[in-house]
Amino acid sequence: MRDLGGACDAAASRGAGMTRAALLEAWPEVTGREAVRVGELQAVAALFGVGTVDEARALLVELYRRPLTAAALETGNARAIVEALGWEDAAAPTAEEVFARAALDARALGEPLHVELDSSAPEEQRDRVLTVDGWMRFEEDYLPRVVTGENGHAHPEALKAQAIAARTYVQRAMRDHRALGRTVPIINSQKFQVYARSAFASCVAAAADTRGIMARYQGRLVLGNYVAGALWTSGKAGADPTHTERWVTYNEGKTGRFVQPTRLSDMRRTDNRGCMGQNCADWLARNGRRYPEILRFFYGADLELGATVGTNSTSTTLPTKPAAERSDPIPGLAVAGAVFQWLFRGGLP
């Protein structure tokens, strides 16, 4: 932690000092804290660029009024910060841009870089999660309701695939965002995952039959993106009423670098192994495919399915993303457009 008392003058005397000084002056007033982690300060400065104290104050208000973004900033992890901003419907530069800018600033100020690009946090499966509707048992309540809300009328094998995808999606998110599901509630939204008011019996069974199974690549959880995608008939994609087919990836038989990532997420991420189409998954299930085959159809033949790292079950399903395009704004989290226009003007150098 760095004490803010005399840090402002020290920062102002160096190359990137104007940015650092403006942030440090506004920090206590906005955050209510007299100390700041170095990685957190570096990350905020990378988002800010150069500006006045008033602009710094406006930026800090925008960032720290969002609980998930505020928690991500404390970690100093660039991907987590950018992902949180995306979930909260805020425009943001790429994680690589944030990391590169932080590295340049650290070099100019002669200090070690405390911002990281990728998370090294270990997996931690939780029995209970905090949602906007209160605490829920993860496997017995939350997950079956997600399967119901996302693709509840699908074939049983597609429901199992959905359960694995949804489990992977949220567990990976909670791994990289430690406050999510603990102190920051999981939202019920197409921007994240949709859960129903109650679960269908078939979805409870799908979650139970795949209990604990998640999707990994080289031992690390994949993103597990999924969308509705096009309707499938006669073995091919047809109408695309939700306009989400462009995110779906068809990776059957592909491995390693030949697996196509989805443009729904940062394509440079090694855990971006594609995107499942829920309508296609249902069609595959109704035509004899079991859930491991369904998941590998979208995420690649080298997808690892198991309850713990190092296991590879042939009867598991892949992570998924919400049925719609996940670009709808979250109520109450609309960004103050004018602030973010100057905040991210022109991207980062």
Give the helices and strands, then pairings.
Elements: E1 2-3, H1 7-12, H2 17-31, E2 35-36, H3 38-48, H4 53-64, H5 67-75, H6 78-87, H7 95-109, E3 128-131, E4 134-137, H8 138-151, H9 156-176, H10 201-209, E5 214-217, E6 220-221, E7 225-227, E8 232-233, E9 236-237, E10 275-277, H11 278-286, H12 291-299, E11 304-306, H13 337-343
Parallel strand pairs: 7-10
Antiparallel strand pairs: 1-2, 3-4, 5-6, 5-11, 8-9
Helix pairs in contact: 2-4, 3-7, 5-6, 6-7, 8-9, 8-10, 9-10, 9-11, 9-12
Approximately how much beta-strand content do the residues carry?
Answer: 5-15%
- Strand/helix succession: EHHEHHHHHEEHHHEEEEEEHHEH
- The neighbouring-strand order within the major sheet is 6-5-11
Rg over alpha carbons: 21 Å
Structural class: mainly alpha
Largest sheet: 3 strands, antiparallel
Tell me the number of helical segments per DSSP (H or I, 4 or more residues long): 13
Number of strands: 11
Q: What is the 3D form?
A: elongated
Task: Give the termini separation.
Answer: 28 Å
- Low-confidence spans: 1-15, 313-349
Mean pLDDT: 82
The helical percent reads 40-55%
How many separate domains make up the residues?
2
Task: Please provide a written account of the structure.
- The chain has 349 residues and is mostly helical.
- It folds into 2 domains: 2-118, no CATH class; 128-306, no CATH class.
- It contains 13 helices and 11 strands.
- The protein has helices at residues 7-12, 17-31, 38-48, 53-64, 67-75, 78-87, 95-109, 138-151, 156-176, 201-209, 278-286, 291-299, 337-343; strands spanning 2-3, 35-36, 128-131, 134-137, 214-217, 220-221, 225-227, 232-233, 236-237, 275-277, 304-306.
- Strand 8 (232-233) and strand 9 (236-237) form a beta hairpin.
- Helix 2 (17-31) crosses helix 4 and helix 3 (38-48) packs across helix 7.
- The longest helix has 21 residues, at 156-176.
- This is Sporulation stage II protein D amidase enhancer LytB N-terminal domain-containing protein.
- Residues 140-217 form the Sporulation stage II protein D amidase enhancer LytB N-terminal domain.
- Residues 310-329 are annotated as: Disordered.
